[in-house]
Amino acid sequence: MTTIRDLAARWRPHVEPALVMVTVSALAAGGIAWLAGQQTIANGCWIAGTFVALVPAVLWVLGPLRRGRVGVDLIALLSLVGTLLVGEYLAGSLIAVMLAGGRALEASAERRASHDLRALLEHAPRFARRRVGTEVGVIALADVAIDDVLVVGPGEVVPVDGRVLDAVAVLDESVLTGEPLQVERTAGEPVRSGVVNAGNAFELRATATAQDSTYAGIVRLAEQAGAESAPIIRLADRYAVWFLPLTLAIAGTAWLVSGSAVRAVAVLVVATPCPLLLAAPVAIVSGLSRASRLGVVIRSGGALENLGHATTLVVDKTGTLTMGRPVVVEISVAPGHDAMEVLRLAASVDQMSPHVLAEAIVTEALARAASLSLPIDVVEEPGRGVTATVDGTRVRVGRLTGTIEAGWARAAVNRARLDSAAIAWVCVDEEPIGGVLLRDPLRRNAPRTVRRLRAAGLNRLVMLTGDRAEPAREVATVLGLDEVYAQQSPADKVTAVRAERDRAVTVMVGDGVNDAPALAAATVGVAMGARGATASSEAADIVLTSDRLDRLADAMDIARWSRRIAVQSATVGMTLSLCAMAVAAFGLLPPAAGALLQEGIDVAVILNALRALRGNPALAVGLPADTEDMLHRFAAEHDSLRDTLGLLRDAADRLAAGSDKSALETLTNAHTFLTGEILPHEHAEETLLYPALARPLGTGEATATMSRTHAEIQRLSDRIGTHIALAQASDGVQPDQIEDLLACLYGLYAVLHLHFLQEEENYFTLADDAPN
What we know:
By secondary structure, the chain is an alpha+beta fold. It folds into five domains: 11-114 and 226-286 and 560-613, no CATH class; 125-220, Calcium-transporting ATPase, cytoplasmic transduction domain A, CATH 2.70.150.10; 296-323 and 443-545, HAD superfamily/HAD-like (Rossmann fold); 327-439, Calcium-transporting ATPase, cytoplasmic domain N (3-Layer(aba) Sandwich), CATH 3.40.1110; 625-766, Four Helix Bundle (Hemerythrin (Met), subunit A), CATH 1.20.120. It is 58% helix and 14% strand. The chain has 27 helices and 22 strands. Strands 10-22-21-20-11-18-19 form a seven-stranded mixed β-sheet, with helices on both faces. Strands 2-1-3-9-4-7 form a six-stranded antiparallel β-sheet, with no helix packed on it. Helix 5 (115-122) packs across helix 7 (214-224) and helix 24 (646-657) packs antiparallel against helix 25. The radius of gyration is 34 Å and the shape is elongated.
């Protein structure tokens, strides 16, 4: 049944245009009658137009009065009444058109600025295709259950969160992330609801219901997004404290000095406060829209303004500064075994396990194109691991029981301890043959993001984590954070956030359920909502729909720019109005001409406020398409080369164990890797990538230190080559060569690792869709 409220909501978008049509028609009809010499009819038309605007003007005044405030709308009401009392009917009709036109422009601007927020709602999926056996049927979105197999056709919206089952899924995630490039998700990878299938049909297994999926949380926030509660939007009423008495004083003085009530009305006409009423809402809503385009959904203008004032950032570690999921960092194997085969066996067994480490092992194996076997007789023992038969062999993946005696295994344990990594041991017939080391890595763009956040105005960065102190301190050292609190419970996090909030405007960023209380306690809570962390998203004021913390720095820039535009528009508009008031007080500006002048001021103010949609041009940074392509190319090369950097350390380890012929062979293989892959890669970066980055980075000096590292890599490689030539001439590596060779190999391994990280953090993250 349609209610009065529904009818009002349906007709509300048509009110402003209708008001404009009526007032403009009355003004035009009066003008035609005046030209025809029918002054009485002309006055009647203009009076009618004035009365049409007078009714909503009274409502606009009564609204603030009910809340105990006197807004600047009172000036507009007084000017309309004044024109009727002194017989300036043309001026009254012009003011009526001005007010109606201003309200229509404001509504149009808000609709334009809110387009991206509304698009989230309009894009929400409505149904799903569920496959049961060989039959596919359309069901309501609310009927989707966890573990349902869903079919997503070409061009359809993914209805719920899930994991790809079979073919590669080509997805357009721009609605959620703002990134224009399509992405591919392979079997086993997660897919978020709300993204569009840009390729062939694929199947996914639902991992959440519609209510708990990513897009549902984003929609709930978008429905609340608006600017009506922002302190900056009450700018007009705050200014009314002095603007209204000043206007009345000028109008009263003009009347008393001249004895003409017309001058007082002229003052009220040009003081009509449309610049105040329009500038702030349009600028703030434009800022909300701008942020949403970048994948930042903000609940309200108040959150946007508070974000612009923030000076302290409190951030969770896991899932925010780190990836939030473990990845394979190394595979240690027993002598005589192959690392790829160890990984294949482990992934084959772990296909049937829901454990987070198992998922990481399977993902790594699939990424390396390993051919997995179907395990049988699978047995999972909580706390111990998974055992299964793979290709006729009994394989167990998990914890290692008993004493670790083998040297390779002790070395793996020490390495895991030093790197704060976990080990999944791979045993065949209860005999360990390898260990897969996993850890939650730092986001590739985290260092650059931290620098951007400091540049955006945050002068204190604090990390809260439930993790142990050692990995927490390591992350804080790398990123240069000001304070670290480790092993924090949810209650501890709330206490820490409140303490920071009492000292300064504080932003808290988190992504898990345990972060929700702390997000609610902060001045501004920001949730990393890309993976559907519903509880934290609901508690937050802002949600980053893309999995990128650097978008928060973008949002801070937008917040400051929007507020600057709002204040600038209101200030300039009031200044022009005050100047016009002074001219009108001296009788040099009649009411009708003043009304036309005020209309021009209104239009200028609205157009200026809409500049917030485009963002601050001083902060606009873009990369040429060919430079971005190069960044993607070299990033992909890094990913492939990083897996083989271990050849250098293996050669050093083998050389340290004994300088026999096998040590020389391993050393020669490492040098071949250097000359055949590493050095050509570094030379291409030096000659192609670095010159292309000179302009975006502002100076060629930005890559100077990296160029020096290239020279050091070349020097150490040449030194190793000279050692190999000497060893070949002497029928083996000589004892006097070992110390220098070990220094070169271990040093080059460390230099290359650091060099790769520096390039990835400083350069590769410049690309908009760079991996985290």
